[in-house]
Fold this protein.
Amino acid sequence: MRKTKLGVIRPTLRHKKRYILLKLINPMVTMEQKKLFSVFTLSMQKASGVFAQVDANITILDIDSKSKTILIRLNKEYIDEFTGSLFFAQNEIGLIKVLEIKSTIKGI
Amino acid sequence: MIDIVSEKLLEEDNIEKTLLELNIDKLYVCRTIDKKEELSGFTLPIFEKVCLNKSYLLKSPALLSSVKEKGVLTLIAGGSLNANAAALTSKADASLFNPIGSELCFDEGLAELARQNKKTIYFNVNEIRVNQHKAIRQMQFIIPLLKSKGIEMRFVTFAKKVNELVDQTILECFLENFWLEKTTSARFLEGGSIK
């Protein structure tokens, strides 16, 4: 079989990402990635449905337990839905403040 | 951002710091009034950077005549057709608070009354957490109706605990579910008027 080179996805076809920095004010849970991920995905599912949650592709990049900040990457089109869904996430993880929403990770 | 909270919130530790972190610099502290006697003895602590103002939530429109203080935000609790109508027709400087009831108790007639009397309608966003099904269903009808008539709305937390407060960015995005654009909801949250 002839070997073919695996092509890279063209930039125009890729999902554009946004980086969102959250701060937990008096957190009610431990700053564990698994726990936080399940809270964020469930609240997004509750607010916008399972298809939006899957498409949003929520990824927790960094958790700083000292400053209580969480860096999340997600699909650009779902940034408002995700931010809105944090209204429900507050019930489980405590008061949340959106510090920054940037298009590049360098900006944060 | 302007917010109305319950007086119980001020009993929490480091509350001023939390409010400043959420960019809340103007706050109405509300006492719920069931009887006339509860109007007396309501004093607010002094905060360094947050401006605190008094507010009364009257359970009955009949208590309106008992409020003698000036410069106090007076709210009348809604929740039934009679209470909503009484709040919107009163000549006094009082606003309707939370017109969500066990069943829908707001219609186009009441919206027209609110427009004629230039009333502001306050919504308790925490009602969505507590009474989710009814609150969302009713708010999805009432908010677009009020928006179409150009009536002033405010979205407040009426928080009793710290975790019931909401960040402005989160609330702006959340209100898009009720067909309010970000700019419109930002204006409501800042206390501005609809154009």
User: Anything to note?
Assistant: Chain A touches chain B through 20 residues (CB under 8 Å). DSSP finds three helices and four strands in chain A.
